[in-house]
Amino acid sequence: MSVRNMPCICQKCQMEIQHGFDVDNVPHLDSEFTLFCPNCSSEQVFRYKDSKKIMAERKRIREEMELREYVKSLAEQYGFRCSFIYQSVTITTPCGSWRFDYHKRLKHLMHESTYKYNLKTGNESFWHHQFDRKMSIEEVIKYIDNHDKATMRRKSMKKEKV
Ligand SMILES: [Zn+2]
User: Fold this and answer.
1) d(CA 137, ligand 1 centre) in Å
2) Residue 37: Cβ-neighbour burial (10 angstroms; 0-12, 13-18, 19+)
3) What is the pLDDT, as a whole number, of residue 55?
4) In angstroms, what is the span from residue 39 Cα to ligand 1's centroid?
5) pTM, 2 dp
6) I need a labelling partner for 3 at 20 to 30 A (CA). Which of 26, 78, 105, 162 fits?
7) Per-10-residue mean pLDDT for the chain, 162 residues long?
8) pLDDT of residue 116
């Protein structure tokens, strides 16, 4: 388990302590939380100290939210839904789902097709690696749209044959 050390201020005595939070459980920047204050010798309400670290953290969060908004607005232009998990976005289209880390220039693109690969065994769809390419977020979403259109064309051609 990794820990993030944050400077915190006791709201009763104003003493500053460094507290290591479990990275998955770090309180929100503007929140109040309870910690043991060695000066008060009791549990007290604490807030983060408004340090450079906290301001950098606020900036990082704001930039992350802006980046997510940007990805979301691009996806919505094509009528795709998206959800964010850690560093990655999952984009869901009528033909399947796609996942990549939208922070990196080199896009490691994963694909889960809704198309059943084996109609005899009825195997479920699964994630596979599509490619690693240096491209912008916009280019990836355009690629997904083109891939969808090609899948639709293949499916409608199959239907015509039957
Ligand atoms: Zn205190």
Assistant:
1) 47
2) buried
3) 84
4) 5
5) 0.67
6) 105
7) 90 96 88 96 94 84 94 97 94 92 95 65 73 96 95 81 57
8) 57
Neighbours of ion ligand 1 (CB under 5 A): 10, 12-13, 15, 37, 39-40, 44
E strand map for the chain = 3-10, 16-22, 33-37, 42-48, 81-85, 88-93, 96-101, 106-113, 127-134
Q: Which residues contact 141 (CB under 8 A, 6 or more apart)?
A: 74, 75, 77, 78, 80, 91
> In DSSP terms, which residues pair with 101 in a beta bridge?
88
User: How far apart are the two ends of the chain, measured CA to CA in Å?
Assistant: 56
For the four alpha carbons of 155, 157, 158 and 159, in that order, the dihedral sign comes to: positive
- Dihedral of alpha carbons 138, 140, 143, 148, sign: negative
Q: Can you give the pLDDT at residue 29?
A: 84
* Structural element, H or E, at residue 40: none
C-alpha–C-alpha distance, residues 41 and 51, integer Å? 25
Looking at residue 63, what is its pLDDT? 94
Q: What is the pLDDT of residue 37?
A: 97
